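User: Could you write out the 3D structure of this protein bound to zinc ion? I've included everything you need below.
Assistant: Certainly. Input first, then the structure.
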Amino acid sequence: MLMCRDLARIASDYIDGKLGTTDTLSVKMHLLMCRHCRSFIGNLRESIQLMKGHSDYRMDEDYARRLDRAVEEALNNPGGS
Ligand SMILES: [Zn+2]
């Protein structure tokens, strides 16, 4: 039987879908019975999605593009406008 501390250890793998069929089933069985772990998994999933959302955000590319444009404009107008 999967214990709460076992579940905490493999929770991120479970959310990422990296667990095997047997482990996934054990986690699901445990979640059916344990409200504590249900909310734990829920919170973990939310924070993982938040992190993934941040890494998908292409701030660097956008910033680099704006920087390029600013440099180009500065080169085309040496005296400033
Ligand atoms: Zn539990």
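The pocket of zinc ion is lined by residues 4, 7, 30, 34, 36-37 (CB under 6 Å).
User: Perfect, thank you.
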